[in-house]
Amino acid sequence: MGWDNEIVKNPDFFGDDWACESIPQREEQIKRLFQCAEPLLRRKVPIHAWIHGKPGTGKTLVSRFFLKKLEEKHFIQGAYINCWECRTLYAVLERLVLDLRVLGADKPDARFKLERLKRHLKDRPFVVVLDEIDMSPPKERNNIVYNLMSLGCVGLVCISYSRQTYYELDDRVKSRLNPHFIEFRPYSADDITAILKDRAEAALLPESWNTEDLERIALLSKGDVRTAIQTLKNAVYWAKSEGSSRLIYHHIQNGINKARSLKKKYLLKKLTKDHRILYGLVKKRGEILSGELWNLYQKVCSEKELKPIAPRTYSMYINQLIDLGLIEAERAKIRGKVRIFRAVV
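Given the sequence above, the corresponding structure tokens read:
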């Protein structure tokens, strides 16, 4: 995508590797992460951290910023692992040994890789960020956390949508991890406006936007800063395609529509086939009771000759769809623990 028009003065702003030197409205969370890591400076095991909050609240951005500053200021290495991509202990260890270039660790055996990793680190301070740890199956989630804690002077930063994922861990893993919880609440409209203003001032010509444009984007993004930034990017693209020298209302409206659509496609693409079936059923019906959804899901699996997931996994998948903002739920006004599900437009 070319940005050589009269709106943009710094096209680097629109790249995925935009390097920020500060993260507005998340200073307190960053401070608490560094407090957890402080024992690493004395080559002691740090306090593990558990970050939780809804999508678009800055969890990934802050964790990457934390790793970057930890290495720049204190020469302590770290690794970022997305558990949506690496869902098993083996996959996590494979990523670590590749990133750290651990020699002689190519044997396809998790225990062997773990031992080689221990030998490579030699009790050196190290931090592993496990992003979207909710997406690993419960058994693998326990294996990942438990085994990484055996590496020596290693701190874990686990990122999830809620604290509930921690409470679902085995008791032996919970007691050993014993993390410090750091909550990321949704950004307020004022917070997002301030963040967008920093970006706009760095990237766009002054006459191409105004504060009202950014306030409108902030309100439309509903607390999701990732959606807000993507909306601004899309709006600038629409203005460029029309040869406009400034943003106007329909550029922003087109921008938010595309940002929401891309977010939904991105999330659904990364989810399992069963997630997509459940979401599709809710979307098709518009509104559906929890028991009815379960029965309809089993019927679809039977028709497609698919093995249905277990009831416990079904409940976990539904909660993940809710946490991701793809569906919403409320208690039905009938007897029993019945919920009504709706697809989020």
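Residues 124 and 219 are 46 Å apart (CA to CA). Try to locate this feature in the token string yourself.
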